[in-house]
Each structure stands twice: as structure tokens, then as C-alpha cells.
């Protein structure tokens, strides 16, 4: 993934501690170790030690020098990884070979979890051949049928991510099947409401437009043909989808039909969460590590600025 401020040279300048929960298959372990070798993350592996050592030996993966926190099983790995994050010993959380619901169950637990006031959501960062800049697609993995209120948090999470990737201001297209408001199509009404909320300062840090169909959101010619006069149409950086089904299909179509590279992280918790799929290869896992590292770095810089301002008051 190059362009949009997220090239490999920038990955290598950012170092973030990451707790890798239960890296007990070859791909998840290799992804974490390779990201470490390139200086992207400094991982702590949370897993049953004997199982981890055997896996590394069988797949010729060198884990020498890496810290290992012992766990008994996958649920224990998730709980211990989250606990270490709560102790401020990490700036990111990475899913290994355990099930997503095991990790996210520990993340969203009311006691001892990593909840914030912001709703948790997922972002895919897609590098599509032939498209000039990366596309952020949200939410395609966590929120099934988000309400208007939930979409406010989902889009704000994506905007914060875009800023961390050097996109300022990001252009947000709120997708539907059409670019006109239709009372019979709920997503068009919510798109219009989100745009007005941005006008009123309820969503900040970006330019929003919607409803927009996919073609006129990412293709200038399509926007021109439909006479859409907008700073966003044709140049969107962020695609806010109506629901998980639409987002998931869009992301997988780009991956498997357009040969797009992808990275993905979950935002809205105390730290970014690298929530990889079992189908993700080492390259995709490394890209997700790099995005999380950049986000963690941006969060650290913002927190330091707030601290300095507080000292002045």
C-alpha cells in the first residue's frame, strides 16, 4: 500500500507496542514476527508457551528475543492481552488465531474491557489498482445495521484514521443506491442527516456529501455526467456504507476481483485493534500492523499536545 501517506518508508519510522493475542497458527505468527523484523511493531506474544514454541519450530519462525506472556487457552489469551493493554503496556491489540468473538468479547466487556464513549467500528483500507489513493471503507465487519446515531461514531472513527494516515481533510462519501434523497430509501435520509450534522459541528475534521452512489463517489466522470457539484463526488477518501452486508461485499469484491491490497483495524476502543481475517496473508497482516502503528503514533502525539495545553492553563 503506497500513497496517501502510508508507504512502507513511513511504516518503518513508527514503532508501536502490540499485544498479539493467541498467535497459534503459522500465518498469524509469521505476520507479527515479520512486522517486528521490519520495525513496524514490537510484539508481545500472548499464548500457551509450549504450543507457541512448537509452532515456531515447525514453521521455521524465529521468535527469539520476543517477549511471551503465558496463557492457558484462547479465552485466557484474549483476557490477558486486554489486561496488558489496560495496564498501559501496549498501544495496539492484534488478533491471532482465536475467534473474533473471543477477542472482541474481552474488548467490550463492561468490567475490564477497553470500551470508550465512542462506538467501536471497523475500517478497511484498500489499495485498489488503477485508483490514485487508498479508500477507507466502513463499517464492513462489526456493526451489522447501524443506526443514524451509531453512524456518527463510525464516520468519526474513519475520519480520525484518515488524519493519522496523513489525509487532511478527508472527503467522505455516504453511500446509497442513488445520489438523490428518497423517503423510501432509509440510507438516503440518513446520509442527508449526517451531512447536516457535519454542517452543525456534530461530525468534525472532514468534508461530507451524500447520498452518493458508488460510481459518482469515486469517479469524477460519473459525477460530472450526473451533474453533481460537490467537493467530495469523484474524489472520496472514505466510503461510509449503509450496512455491514454492503460494506463486506464491497471490500471483498475489491480484494478478489480488482486485486486490491487491504489492511483493516477496529477503532473506538482505547487502542486500535488489528482484527485480521483467517483468509488474510502475511502481507495483509503486516499492512494492518502498519496502519495501527500510524494510528497509535497519531494518538500519542495528540495526547502529548493535550497534556502540554493542560500544563499551560
Please write out the topology:
Layout: H1 8-11, E1 16-21, H2 26-37, E2 41-47, H3 49-58, E3 67-70, H4 74-86, E4 92-95, H5 100-108, E5 121-127, E6 135-138, H6 148-164, E7 171-175, H7 186-199, E8 207-212, H8 214-218, H9 220-225, E9 238-240, H10 244-256, E10 261-267, E11 273-274, H11 282-312
Helix pairs in contact: 2-11, 4-5, 6-11
What does this molecule look like?
With 313 residues, the chain is an alpha/beta fold. It has helices at residues 8-11, 26-37, 49-58, 74-86, 100-108, 148-164, 186-199, 214-218, 220-225, 244-256, 282-312, and strands spanning 16-21, 41-47, 67-70, 92-95, 121-127, 135-138, 171-175, 207-212, 238-240, 261-267, 273-274. The protein has 2 domains: 13-115 and 269-313, 3-Layer(aba) Sandwich (Rossmann fold); 119-268, Isopropylmalate Dehydrogenase (3-Layer(aba) Sandwich), CATH 3.40.718.10. Strand 7 (171-175), helix 7 (186-199) and strand 8 form a beta-alpha-beta unit.
Structural class: alpha/beta
Rounded Rg: 20 Å
**CATH C-level category of the largest domain:** Alpha Beta
Overall shape: it is globular
What oligomeric state is this? single chain
Query: What is the element string, with H for helices and E for strands?
Result: HEHEHEHEHEEHEHEHHEHEEH
CATH topology title of the largest domain: Isopropylmalate Dehydrogenase
What about the largest sheet? 6 strands, mixed
As for the number of domains, it is 2
| Main sheet strand line-up | 8-7-9-6-5-10
- In CATH, what is the homologous superfamily of the largest domain? Isopropylmalate Dehydrogenase
How far is the first residue's CA from the last residue's CA?
42 Å
Mean pLDDT: 88
Count the beta strands. Answer: 11
Helix content: 40-55%
Strand content: 15-25%
- The CATH architecture designation of the largest domain is 3-Layer(aba) Sandwich
How many individual helices?
Answer: 11
Low-confidence runs: 1-15
Amino acid at each position: 500500500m503506497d500513497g496517501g501517506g502510508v508507504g512502507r518508508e513511513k511504516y518503518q519510522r513508527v514503532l508501536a507496542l502490540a499485544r498479539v493475542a493467541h498467535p497459534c497458527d503459522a500465518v498469524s505468527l509469521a505476520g507479527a514476527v515479520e512486522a517486528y523484523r521490519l520495525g513496524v511493531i514490537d510484539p508481545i506474544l500472548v499464548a500457551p508457551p509450549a504450543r507457541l514454541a512448537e509452532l515456531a519450530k515447525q514453521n521455521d519462525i524465529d521468535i527469539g528475543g520476543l517477549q511471551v506472556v503465558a496463557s492457558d487457552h484462547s479465552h485466557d489469551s484474549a483476557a490477558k492481552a486486554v489486561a496488558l493493554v489496560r495496564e498501559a503496556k501496549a498501544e495496539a491489540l492484534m488478533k491471532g488465531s482465536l475467534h473474533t468473538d473471543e477477542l472482541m468479547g474481552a474488548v467490550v466487556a463492561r468490567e475490564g474491557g477497553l470500551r470508550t464513549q465512542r462506538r467501536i467500528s471497523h475500517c478497511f483500507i484498500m489499495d485498489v489498482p488503477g485508483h490514485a489513493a487508498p479508500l477507507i471503507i466502513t463499517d464492513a465487519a462489526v456493526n451489522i445495521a447501524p443506526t443514524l446515531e451509531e453512524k456518527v461514531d463510525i464516520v468519526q472513527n474513519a475520519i480520525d484514521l484518515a488524519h493519522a494516515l496523513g489525509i487532511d481533510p478527508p472527503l467522505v462519501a455516504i453511500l446509497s443506491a442513488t445520489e438523490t434523497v428518497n423517503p423510501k430509501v432509509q440510507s438516503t435520509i440518513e446520509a442527508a442527516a449526517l451531512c447536516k450534522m457535519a454542517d452543525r459541528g456534530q461530525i468534525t475534521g472532514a468534508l461530507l456529501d451524500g447520498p452518493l452512489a458508488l460510481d459518482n463517489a469515486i469517479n469524477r466522470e460519473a459525477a460530472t455526467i450526473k451533474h453533481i457539484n460537490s467537493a467530495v463526488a469523484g474524489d472520496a477518501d472514505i466510503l461510509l456504507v449503509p450496512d455491514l452486508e454492503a460494506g463486506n461485499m464491497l471490500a471483498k469484491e475489491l480484494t478478489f476481483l480488482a486485486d486490491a491490497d487491504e489492511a483493516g483495524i477496529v477503532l473506538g476502543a482505547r487502542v486500535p485493534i488489528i482484527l485480521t481475517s483467517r483468509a488474510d496473508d502475511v502481507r495483509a497482516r503486516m499492512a494492518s500492523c502498519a496502519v495501527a502503528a500510524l494510528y497509535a503514533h497519531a494518538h500519542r502525539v495528540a495526547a502529548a499536545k493535550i497534556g502540554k495545553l493542560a500544563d499551560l492553563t
